[in-house]
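User: I'm new to structure prediction. If I give you an amino acid sequence, what do you actually give back? Let's try with this one:
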Amino acid sequence: MKQLIWFKYFFRNFIYKLRFFNSKINIDPSAYISPKAVIKIIGGGKIVIGKNCEIHDFAILMTYGGDIIVGDDSSVNPFTIIYGHGGTVIGKGVRLAAHSTIIPANHIFGDSNIPLHKKGIITKGIKIDNYVWIASGCRILDGVIIGKHAVIGAGSVVNKSIPDFCVAIGVPAKIIQKIKS
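Assistant: Good question. You get back a string of structure tokens that encode the predicted 3D arrangement of the chain. For your 181 residues, that looks like this:
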């Protein structure tokens, strides 16, 4: 049995090294990365995926110049988008449900004659602490810190930090309950 597990990790590691050859993508061999997931370094940065993580079909991780770090035992479900711009750190045991979006950047806007896409962006980064559950269809915006054991309800837009052991829902997300620790 141990030989079979060793072979599985050895084979995965070999496949990941081929798939992400010569890039700043570091994936633990115990992690499962779907062949249909999109994982790319764009404009610099790095991607680190920890032990026993799962990155499912059609999930997208793109650095856009920043780092993306996914802690051990975390899962990124189908059609979830994680960008790196100002840095995205996801703790251990985090569950990111399908169709959620994490974007650590904001456009610079104003009423000048320069088109929005040429004004640049502001980046603060996003941190999601350990054992957080982000339900389906959530949007996590730049500068947010989500505390450990927090729950973000489906369809919520998180534009302000959420403390440890809290449940937040809505647009924008508001704390509706504190969880007993």
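You can read the tokens as a compact description of the fold. Here is one thing that stands out. Helices lie at 2-19.
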